[in-house]
TrEMBL record:
Cited PANTHER family: CGI-12 PROTEIN-RELATED, EMB|CAB62602.1
Similarity annotation: Belongs to the mTERF family.
InterPro entries: MTERF, MTERF_sf
Keyword Transport annotated: no
Record Pfam families: mTERF
Name the record gives this protein: Uncharacterized protein
Length: 358
């Protein structure tokens, strides 16, 4: 194999002095391997822009060699850009949006093509999204970093059409800004794909005038049909009917974004330890979205300790206790009982998830 490779290398013409200097620059300045530098050097002729000027510009703007090497590896066209006339204005464009330093570096690392030929597709998209975001650069940047806007044909046409369709579905104003910031992929979906997604939400019992429609749309856009089916099966394995599952989803669409392991532990705990009736979870499915480790189990422990010591005149409903603000819970159930406050606080904060037996 080694002899074959050696013979192959002899078939490659020796690089010209110009290309030799390019190869040396890429290996010495950016740390490229010799084969990769040789491959990149074939893109240049003596009449083309010298890559040194591009790399020097990027370094002068504070980007390090590792970043630059990664960008060039992903998008070699960067090295062909005119440093002053093309590359510098593009970087300034992103800086004017509020991206700078490490944030700008991370943004370009995700889509290095934005510094080369894809920029011309991205720029008009930014104008449309900026208008949607009411010129809020923070939301604009958050939206831009979560999606690749330049891989589709006529992106502005598609984005504008999808915004119009979502508005026709009643998703307007702050709701539209929120969902597109969290799931910007909705704006570049194909027309039929987006309409199918909305149809799925409507088939699950939501209406176009429902305030929960946008939350359901976001949830379904995050998950595959298979994942949704698995979560329905998980609930049904605990005895919930399909109708009850749909009811819970309608009340709290975000519930189905909770991991299967957390759902399993939560349902098990509420039904078998707290002894909730299933109807309680159907009415208040958001219980299953609370942190078991940080809120539910510690509070259940405190309530059990207070009950076992006969400190409470009347045991409150645990459903209500779970939803108390933290400071109110501490004051009402720990600080108020001064004789046991240290013991209760230790039990609450120790991280021991073993629930005392009644």
């Amino acid at each position: 194999m080694a002899n074959l490779f050696s013979r192959y290398l002899h078939t490659i013409p020796s690089p010209s002095p110009f290309k030799s200097s390019i190869i040396d620059y890429l290996t010495e300045s950016l740390g490229f391997s010799k084969p990769r530098a040789l491959s990149l050097s074939t893109r240049f002729s003596s009449s083309e822009t010298n890559p040194q000027s591009v790399i020097q510009l990027l370094k002068s703007l504070g980007f390090n060699s590792t970043d630059i090497q990664n960008w060039v590896d992903e998008s070699p066209q960067i090295l062909f850009a005119d440093a002053e006339k093309t590359l510098k204005p593009r970087i300034q464009f992103f800086q004017n949006l509020g991206l700078a330093g490490s944030e700008l570096s991370k943004f370009i690392s995700k889509n290095p093509g934005y510094l080369s030929n894809r920029f011309e597709r991205l720029k008009p998209c930014v104008d449309v999204i900026k208008e949607l975001m009411n010129h809020d650069n923070e939301n604009l940047i958050r939206t831009l970093t979560r999606c690749n806007w330049a891989d589709i044909k006529q992106p502005v046409t598609r984005i504008s059409a999808n915004i119009k369709y979502l508005e026709q579905c009643g998703i307007v104003g702050s709701q539209l800004v929120t969902i597109t910031t969290r799931q910007p992929r909705l704006l570049i979906m194909g027309e039929s794909e987006l309409k199918d997604l909305v149809s799925k939400v409507l088939d699950m019992g939501f209406s176009l005038d429902s305030r929960m429609l946008v939350h359901a749309l976001y949830t379904l856009s995050c998950m595959s049909d298979e994942t949704i089916k698995r979560k329905f099966k998980l609930f049904q394995s605990f005895g919930f009917t399909k109708v009850e599952c749909l009811d819970m989803f309608k009340r709290a669409p975000g519930l189905f974004r909770v991991s299967e392991s957390k759902l399993n532990l939560g349902i098990e705990f509420f039904l078998n330890t707290v002894k909730f009736d299933k109807a309680v979870l159907v009415r208040r499915p958001t219980c299953l979205m609370l942190s078991l480790e940080e809120r539910v189990i510690p509070r259940y422990k405190i309530l059990n300790i207070l009950t076992s010591k006969k400190i409470l005149k009347k045991t409150p409903k645990f459903l209500n206790v779970m939803w108390l603000p933290e400071d109110e819970f501490l004051e009402k159930f720990i600080s108020k009982n001064r004789d046991y406050a240290d013991e209760l606080l230790l039990a609450y904060k120790c991280g021991d998830l073993v629930v005392p037996k009644e």
